[in-house]
Amino acid sequence: MLFKKSSAVGRKLSLIILILAGLILTSACRQPEHFIKDKSYRLLVQESFRKRAEIASGRNEQLFSVFKRPLRPEEKEALEFLYAFMPLSDLANLDGEYFLEQVRAALEARRYFSWGKKIPDSIFRHFVLPYRVNNENPDGARRVFFEELKDRIKHLDMYQAALEVNHWCHEKVTYRSTDERTSAPLATVRTAFGRCGEESTFTVAALRAVSLPARQVYTPRWAHTDDNHAWVEVWVDGRWHYLGACEPEPELDQGWFTGPASRAMLVHTTVYGQYHGPEEIILKTDLFTRINQLPRYAPVTLLTVEVKDSRNRSVAEARVDFCLYNYAEFFPIASKTTDQNGRVSLLTGYGDLVIQASKDNLYTWTKVSAGRPDRISLVLTEPDFTERKLALDLVPPAAREVEPGDPIKAEENNRRLRQEDCIRQQYETSFINREIAAIFCREKNLPFETVWKYLETSRGNWPEIIDYLSALTPGEQKLGLALLGAITQKDLRDTPSSVLLHHLRETLPPENGLDEEIYIRYVLSPRIGRELLTPWRKFIKEKFSPQEKTRFKENPENIGLWIKQNIKIDETNYYQVPLFPQGALELQRADLYSRKILFVAMARTLGQPARLDRVTERAQYFHSGQWHEVCFEDEESLAESKPKTRLKITYQPIETVSKAIYYTHFTLARFKNGRYQTLDLENEPALNSASLELMVDPGHYLLISGNRQPDGSALVSLHFFRVPETGFKEICFSLRTEPQEPAVLGKFEPEATVYDFKDKSSLNLNSWLKGQSFIMALIDPDREPSKHLMTEIQALADRFVSWPGNLLVVIAWGKIPAGLSPEIYSDLPDSARLVYDEKNQLPSLLKKALSREPTSLPAVIAVRSSREIMYYSEGYQIGTGEQLLKRLPWLK
Asked: With 285 labelled, which of 34, 506, 576, 660 sits at a CA distance of 20 to 30 A?
């Protein structure tokens, strides 16, 4: 009996052992889980990874030692995907530890949230995993944002989670215009404001941190107004939806830009890696894919361009630029290369474009109204360089009505927005105040007004500026403060103390006879171009031998020569984020712009004043009282070796525009590399004079001038001319006008009572206006369109002073942000009045006058003394201030 029982037990044990053995064998034979399940795409990634690794061999240890660590198969493949397609700047500026942390954080978030398993691999790969959104300097925001958001949204579905993340973003950041360098997400949070590109970069980073696929969407230029805009799309349960970054609405697919987007001619995004989604591909490269999302926002037509030669033969590989009139230039919203049949196509809106085509020094252009026809044929010929003038009328797509949202949901959303304003303002109270700053300055014997200016500007970065100032010895204080005055406001907001101290203490003292201002701006200052400030001086000093440094210092041209011989040009830096000087030296590669940055950094390290010219962006060094250019490409050196010619441009004023402004009323383009390219003269000092005089390269030029009309159309003039190699060239231009008086749009009776912030009492508008002309702007102070308008009007305040009418700024009912201070509009003309529509009377009065109630703000109306309406606009219209000035002659 015992024997039989033991046999039974033995058989069971044998069975268990067989089962376990089978499981072990099965486990051993099972293939590891791939991050990239598509074998062909996985092979593509591996090949691209191999090529990028070869390019980055100069930073092999910093970038690739991370692969020696124990990695799960999905981690390794995700890392390879990132390396395979990253721009050159990230190979130069970042390291493997950073990328591994990004991979692990992204995979952890995917496992944490219930929706992670719903996300298709391709969507996750391209719209969650990437650590970069656009041209920001990547930081560690992914982990920080995940920890702050995970408990707040984990019980929500994807749709509600996306809305909630945007509410969180609004608690952190609001809109304010900033400079062109895009802040990293954490820096934007510390600052508590950012322009639309920074808000959308920050919001995409927040969504991706919680495994919600997201992408920044961008219209490179609007057709109806002189500006551009960026917003966000988020993938929810199989569909892409849009939202305004840091501007929450009650639902997805709502935003103040819905109306403007319906008039766009292109909406696109740049996708990390080679992407095979359903959208139209505008541009496909080995590293990124640019796609067209316009059909989601506006009616579209497929515009096809055929390029032929003079013998009617198709021209392959010709460049075709689809150009939009904006900022007084023809800006290429898309550039494509013709196929073997000489054709390119673009899905675009129903507005006017200027098409340029070029190849092998042959050129042609034409104006086209998209959809009328949908196919055009261009013939490449020798460029026509005869001096001539042409007129073009350019019309944008028609405005479209936007369905209003649910008013009950809108009111609840507005309540939340006010609450979120309070949260953000509470954070802002943690910034250093004048009293604490004054105590600090007394203790450190520092000049208060100077220091307070820097501390106030630094926003949430003030502890770093305090640390920097605290570390200064008495002998360092003068130059230490000068350094803060030589960098930008954004530098003050995102530069660590250690970087500032590095540059102060590693900068060589000034040589005898060197002008102090030259020394501070062009030797001491670490600010060169649009790069992030980093510590590069010590590395450069240790990189070169004493003999090399002596040779460089004796003749800075030798620095340029060394760079050209040792730093290979690599144009795979597709986001155009500048390489840090140290990274460029380690990588031994750089794009052209970053090579110029490196030249300036090397020269300044050796005590030689150097800069990038503000207008041309050419590298220059200062010697014997003059600035000398250093050229970094053959074509440039050839063109710039010739003497420059004096060009005088004179503007003949019209009644409504007394002074022509560059990038508003006119631009100048030079024919270069087969097409006309705008000169960036925004910072040219001569632009402030009545007669603009420039020293320019000889060649063929095009002066474009335009007069934007209230409906968004533009009256454009073209002047083609040649600047000779010797002598002097003078041209003059004016703006085309519509001579007739503007049409009367209706009659407006201001029978309303509002709250006057100045007198802190109710004000009857009709009694106050006393039959005078007036301009009234109904605004939402916390939204970007109204902020643009108020910035414009305040900038033009002196132009309204001589006008005898009244300027009325009305905050719409329910739109007072928490903590509103009327002082934010302190630059308004003295005659202006800031009031609140406390009884919500004005929308109905506007509806009575115009047979329509405004559906988007700001709503602006210009009314003359007879109560006739001479101008009306609503929503996003950059240039409204200028349009109002044009109406003043009829507002009497």
From this structure: 34
